[in-house]
Request: fold
Amino acid sequence: MTFPKDLLSIADLNESQINDLLELAGTLKASRFDPSHPKPLTGKSIGILTSKPSLRTRLSFEVGLMELGAHSVFIKNDEVGLGQRESYNDVARVISRYFAAFIVRTHEHNGLLELAKHASIPIINALSDSEHPCQILADFLTIKERFGRLKGVKLCYVGDGNNVAVSLMLGSAITGIEFCLITPSGYEPPKAQVDRASSLAKKNASPLPNITNDLNLASTADILYTDVWISMGQDNSRERIKKDFDPYQINRQVSGNGRIPILHCLPAHRGEEITDEAFEDNANLIFDQAENRLHAQKALLLKILT
Ligand code: CP
Ligand code: NVA
Reply:
């Protein structure tokens, strides 16, 4: 099966590509400590550039690349000045002479599109202000491990209509997950992304995304998901945002006293989007989800690079 050159949005992949990738991720996970674990990226160098902090994304990519035989080079955007010190176009053509792929975490999603347009090597979105596709691959691997399938699972995301929410909504529309997003008024995902998810859902015969302010819907979920109320680089008007989100905190009442499992992409702000108790009820699942970043991204790199 062919894969696209770049992964900028989860919607760059179709349902078969996502399922194929998750299958491979499961195989890689099972054989991780096996001496026969494949190292097909031996001799390749991959660049990782970030203009925001990261724990999971950087480390899971670096460890994954090492386990596949590749070498990674990490650089902070302070040194590069993407689009400021140097144009996206020129940076894209320079990195294409050094690397087999380039993994980028940045604010500007349009900058990623520009890099991908001019680079001859794959560009992988390691989080932008619009999307977080690598996170969603790990989330779907975790959901598949839990329920044995994606199609028909009811996933309710409670929180800000941010990058993670958008990628979950698009990915659900592609894979047949029944997606609902519960958020206070004014924090819905951009209309263009909701429209995009709706047309993907129609094309794939998936349920339409349900965007609502009604927290009661959470009790109908097979699985809940939350993320920080204030994303990196968006910390204006903290007090107002916290007040708006206060009734939307995930706690034991929302999870039916622990009956409904909860995912969190991390980092978590306990006492804000999730209580300490609700987090700890689900700690095993949440740290499996964090571990799955490694396996899903190894599968992605293999699919894109080999
Ligand atoms: N979930 C996630 O992307 O974590 P980091 O920001 O630590 O990479
Ligand atoms: N929405 C969060 C996700 C962090 C992994 C952010 O962008 O900060």
